[in-house]
TrEMBL record:
UniProt-annotated stretches for the region Disordered: 189-253
UniProt domain Oxidoreductase molybdopterin-binding: residue ranges: 324-458
Residues spanning the membrane: 21-50, 88-108, 129-149, 161-180, 261-279
Keyword match Protease: no
SUPFAM superfamilies: Oxidoreductase molybdopterin-binding domain
UniProt protein name: Molybdopterin-dependent oxidoreductase
Species in which this protein is naturally found: Streptomyces musisoli
Entry annotated with the keyword Lyase: no
Comp. bias (Basic and acidic residues): 189-237
Length: 461
């Protein structure tokens, strides 16, 4: 039974802002329709690139892990591919936060509407709305916390964010199917009304009866004012907003801003977040503008190793005694057996160079760095994999943090730019950048460019 007590949230009279209305909500919804679709696609692309924790390891086999059916061999060209897709994903997600919050604010009366379900279709809409709101808040919150390197949710971010995205997007699609036609009609109706007013004004300008012309303009002005301030002429059609899904209040307070002004405010907030985030992905002079990004600002140091670091050797639990020239050995295994190589032995192998960036799941990236080391496909040939090299399983010395182990696909191993890097920018790797040896692969997520490499296993994992 409908509750008309204006003191209760279930009553339309409880929500008194004159800004709420179908047109305002529709514009925000159409922006989110495009933006969230791009977010979902780039998010899936990111998981295709490294598939973390969807099975016991980031397994490279398509079909592994629940909902991992879409996985494919991640390409190595162009070499900045992951830098672009993940930078777009993170930057767009942060930029859309004001739009999402404004959209939730605009439809909050519907969350309290009674009865909970008037029909089966209405019940499905309410369920999709609840999943949409809950899923949206969860996805954006976990994403922002991960970007800020301050993730606090129990369990691994990667599967929670991944499976949460599927639930959220399923609700998003269901809601879009139900609401996009209404949103498009609302936007078109607003444009038709504006065109009609302009046409009416031109017709009045041609009339010879000045009195009627002035009366028409005054009446038109009153109608325009009522419409702009959320009046019942447009949104409620005189029925207290019932035709507009209960968004228009029957008891509006005096407006302090127009709906158009509110949209400009939301857009300005999004532009501000864009300007203070995007520099971490683009780099160069714009990096100094990335005030909201942990890896924004200038490079964290000077010299050849003075570029962004996600986790330090101390954080990863690297013992310097294990990485010294006498102690460290790289174990390489394949169908031809196992070999153990010191760093000096690796340096006597043919060395090659690649100019590649590091791009992280948090959205930050470096400029191209000049890496030098042994090609992965040469190491595969060393243990019996001549010709087309197989998949590769990499293990690190690190004791703390995710991605102590990582899997690379055969096409990544075969690329001549894929290296077991020993130098960067003409100097030995620093401990924080993976000394004595690290992986560097074109277009790969930073987490697959394993540091402090201890073992390489070529072939079936």
């Amino acid at each position: 039974m409908r509750d008309d007590d204006p003191r209760l949230p279930s009553s339309p009279g409880f929500w008194r802002s004159p800004l709420r209305g179908t047109w305002f909500t529709s514009v925000l919804g159409l922006v989110l329709l495009v933006g969230i679709t791009v977010l979902f696609v780039t998010g899936l692309v990111s998981y295709a690139a490294y598939n973390p924790d969807l099975s016991p390891v980031n397994d490279q086999t398509p079909g592994k892990g629940i909902l991992g059916f879409y996985l494919f061999s991640w390409p190595t060209d162009p070499h900045w591919l992951y830098r672009f897709t993940q930078g777009l994903h993170v930057t767009l997600g942060i930029t859309l936060i004001p739009v999402l919050l404004a959209k939730l604010w605009s439809v909050v009366p519907r969350l309290f509407a009674l009865p909970p379900a008037r029909s089966l279709a209405h019940a499905l809409e309410r369920i999709s709305l609840l999943l949409l709101v809950g899923g949206g808040l969860f996805e954006f919150t976990t994403g922002v916390l991960n970007v800020q390197l301050d993730y606090v949710f129990p369990g691994s971010f990667y599967p929670l964010h991944f499976y949460g995205a599927w639930v959220f997007f399923a609700a998003f699609v269901a809601h879009a199917v139900l609401k996009v036609p209404t949103a498009l009609r609302a936007v078109r109706r607003r444009q038709d009304e504006r065109d009609g007013r302009e046409q009416g004004g031109r017709e009045r300008d041609g009339r010879e009866q000045g009195g009627r012309e002035r009366d028409g303009r005054e009446q038109g002005g009153r109608e325009l004012g009522g419409r702009e301030l959320g009046g019942r002429e447009r949104d409620g059609r005189g029925q207290g907003g019932r035709e507009q899904g209960g968004l228009v209040t029957p008891r509006p307070v005096a407006p302090t801003v127009s709906r158009r002004g509110a949209l400009w405010f939301v857009g300005g907030a999004s532009l501000l977040l864009l300007a203070t985030t995007v520099g971490q992905s683009i780099g160069g002079a714009l990096r100094r503008t990335a005030l909201l990004a942990p890896h924004g600002g200038t490079d964290p140091g000077a010299g050849p190793n003075g570029f962004q670091i996600n986790k330090t050797a101390a954080y990863a639990g690297i013992d310097p005694r294990e990485t010294g020239a006498q102690a460290w050995r790289l174990v390489v295994t394949g169908r031809g057996g196992t070999v153990r190589l010191s760093r000096d032995q690796l340096l006597r192998m043919p060395l090659h160079s690649s100019a590649l960036p590091i791009a992280c799941v948090e959205g930050w990236s470096t400029a191209d760095q000049w890496w030098r080391g042994v090609r992965l496909r040469d190491l595969a040939a060393l243990v019996g994999h001549d010709g087309d090299p197989p998949d590769l399983f990499v293990e690190s010395l690190q004791r703390h943090g995710a991605f102590r182990r990582a899997a690379l696909r055969a096409n990544q191993v075969a690329d001549p730019r894929s290296l077991l890097a020993l130098y960067v920018n003409g100097e030995d790797l620093s401990p924080d950048h993976g000394y004595p040896a690290r992986i560097i692969v074109p277009a790969a997520p930073g987490v697959l460019n394993t540091k402090w490499v201890a073992r390489l296993t070529f072939g079936d994992l």
